[in-house]
Amino acid sequence: MGKLRSAELDMTSMIDVVFLLIAFFTLVINFTTADQNERIKLPVSETAQPPEQPPTEPLTLNLLPDGNIIYNGNEYTLETLREPVEFQLRVLKYMKVPPEQITIIIRADSVSEAGSVLELISFCQSQKLTRFILRTRHSEDGG
Length: 143
Fold this sequence. Notes:
Blueprint: H1 12-28, E1 44-45, E2 57-63, E3 69-71, E4 74-76, H2 82-94, E5 102-108, H3 114-126, E6 131-134, E7 137-138
């Protein structure tokens, strides 16, 4: 009887495939939930409709009930929001994105004051931003 030889697997190819899959899924992952904040409870609307297509250059601002704004994961007052927004607009201008193509997505809490929403819109308009989406959630019970 012959001797049995031990078989060794070359794992290099398998490791390469695993890293390629990780890179692929990292690139195609959907980051739309990254701008959402669990502290924001959106108001209910029976007439809310999802947009036909996502905005090309979204800039999401989450308005808390106390009037503070969460932008890029950091909390700001309306006064302190100016610097990070102006920086983002300079980056987009460098990338040849005109202000007319930037869409401001405002996610205001359902108990936020309407005046706070209007102040936030006025602030954005002072930055030459004119496209807005106000996020709501559709009525669960339909009535």
